[in-house]
Amino acid sequence: MLEWLIIGGGIHGTHLSRVLTAQAGGDAAQVRVLDPHKEPLQRWRECTRNCGMEFLRSPLEDHIADDPLSLFIYRRDRGTHSTTHLGRTRGRAALTVFNDHADDVIRRSGLRDLRLVGRATGLTSVAGGLGVDSDAGRIEARRVLLAMGITEQLRYPDWVAALPAHHYDHVGAPGFDVAGVGAWEHCVVVGGAMTAAQTAVALSKSGSGEVTLLSRGELRCHDYDTDAEWIRPTGPARLADEPDFDRRRAIVESGRHPGSVTSSVEAAVTLAVGLGRLTHTVADVVAAEARPDGGVRLQFADRDSINADRLLIATGFDSRRPGGEWLDAAAEELGLPTASCGYPIVDEKLEWGSGVHVCGPLAELELGPAALNIAGARFAGRRLAAVEST
């Protein structure tokens, strides 16, 4: 029986596999990561590549290593100074530097060897621990960490339902590769946040054809997707004195800036528009129609319309609780408490109950609005390091 099984091997699962291996006395045989993808951070790399991300939104202190200064030191020692500053005091790393540093941490720590390729389908209690059913077989562990994210929960505008699936792509869909989009006459990117803006700017540089960024409103600027105090180490403590979980939910939601972009991404959109490479249209789509030639026609509320031969949806991910039906069944069987919003009620060590621990979005009622970000992975690491090994 393992000491820890981590379900989910993205940023959170990868960082925490390192933390929990150390917590298990450095015995890598006691920790495994169950994930549908063979490589660590595979979904992270797909999503960031497809939207053309150049710089992270988070500060240099947020990465998968233990030492908060690790990424800064890595960049400095390699003479890599590709950062851009947010305000006067914080910088953020270029995506290439972040990924190279992550690869270095994964290699030196042997984290790739911890991975089991498979998808969880059930969670039950067994003698001395928990049993996880998966398409890779049954796995037993004394403790299970649920580290699933929301990147498989694609969000679509309602009007997309009127279109055949082959008439559009979601840039966050598993397996989607923007490099395979091919040539177009008019590509419309739908969305008003970071993914949409970055995707539109990246495509506008290709010279393949006309590109339009279509958003419901003007771009809203926030350098972080939460209020800055929530990404500081003291951020989660702001929830500790609130016993009412409905109020905690309200605090979490009010501390977020969904649908926003950084000032540098807004500047990139403005530059692309100024150079004539990109059109930014602000309109509310009320209907969509598939054209016989494979393109689409989008009807706006003001009765204007736009035609496109390539439609990319970049409206992000649904914020519903990850895990789906198998986690619903497990929560009921194990008596795991939830708030009225359906999210876990956990203790200070992120234990949901019965040896089940959570991180990422599942921990947001304990860790706050930044729980699903890289900062949240680090918050979780500090909490989980205090869990006693059995």
Poorly predicted parts: 84-90
Measured between the Cα atoms of the first and last residue, the distance is 11 Å
Largest sheet: 8 strands, mixed
Provide the CATH architecture of the largest domain: 3-Layer(bba) Sandwich
State the CATH superfamily name of the largest domain: FAD/NAD(P)-binding domain
Give the helix proportion (percent range).
25-40%
Discrete helix count: 10
Which class of secondary structure composition applies to the elements?
Answer: alpha/beta
Query: What is the rounded Rg?
Result: 22 Å
* Overall mean confidence score, pLDDT: 94
CATH topology category name of the largest domain: FAD/NAD(P)-binding domain
**Shape, principal axes of CA atoms:** globular
Order of helices and strands: EHEHHEEHEEEEEEHEEHEHEEEEEHEEHH
Give the number of domains. Answer: 2
Total count of strands: 20
Q: Quick one: CATH class of the largest domain? A: Alpha Beta
Residue share in β-strands: 15-25%
